[in-house]
Amino acid sequence: MPGSDVLIPVGKILGTHGIKGMLKLHSFSGNTESLQSVRTVTIRSKNGMLQELDLSHLAGHGSKIIIGLKGLDDINLVQPLIGSEICLRRNQLPETDNDEYYWCDLIGLKVATVEGRELGTLDEIFEAGSSDIYVVRDGEREYLIPAIADVISSVDLESGRMLITPLEGLLDL
């Protein structure tokens, strides 16, 4: 599990909103809960530069989030931030409920079937409608595993393992 000071990307700045320095943000989680609980965010620019800034505004706007950053109240000041990621430190994220996990905690887990067949490492996660899809790779093969209760049997962050019960034909694709 990542340390408390590890930066976790929670969204990406898509563009400006109006002329007063507001920014349109795509939330990777689809909600504002983690951002609503903090005052300070870290901006990671496209070239990797980090900058800590205080939030001055946060509001939902359709499927996007509108944020404002203290001291940046003009469109010309925020345009260079387009394409940057908004990151939080691990210790800024809210606690998860049972059977809920942050993507950053799942990436890197070894994945096997409940029968003991080793599938590989969870390398990537993406959203696909009603559930996330876990991309598991072993160097030769790639498996797309739906993140649904019928398939994910157990997740053990301590041992770094996930066990799945594949739906019929899932591993044949």
How would the blueprint of this fold be written?
Elements: E1 7-17, E2 22-27, H1 33-36, E3 40-44, E4 50-61, E5 64-69, H2 75-78, E6 85-89, H3 103-106, E7 110-113, E8 118-128, E9 131-137, E10 142-146, E11 152-156, E12 161-164
User: Any idea what the CATH superfamily of the largest domain is called?
Assistant: RimM
Q: Whole-number average pLDDT?
A: 90
Succession of helices and strands = EEHEEEHEHEEEEEE
Count of individual domains = 2
Q: Helices and strands: which structural class? A: mainly beta
Give the class-level CATH name of the largest domain: Mainly Beta
Largest sheet: 6 strands, antiparallel, barrel
CATH topology of the largest domain: Elongation Factor Tu (Ef-tu), domain 3
**Assembly state here?**
single chain
Annotated CATH architecture of the largest domain: Beta Barrel
Percent helix, as a range, is: under 10%
Q: Ranges with pLDDT <50 over ≥5 residues?
A: none
Strand fraction: over 45%
> Nearest-angstrom radius of gyration?
19 Å
User: Looking across the biggest beta sheet, what order are the strands in?
Assistant: 1-2-5-4-3-6
Task: Please give the alpha-carbon distance between the first and last residues.
Answer: 31 Å
Query: Can you tell me the overall shape?
Result: elongated
- What is the strand tally? 12
The total of helices stands at 3
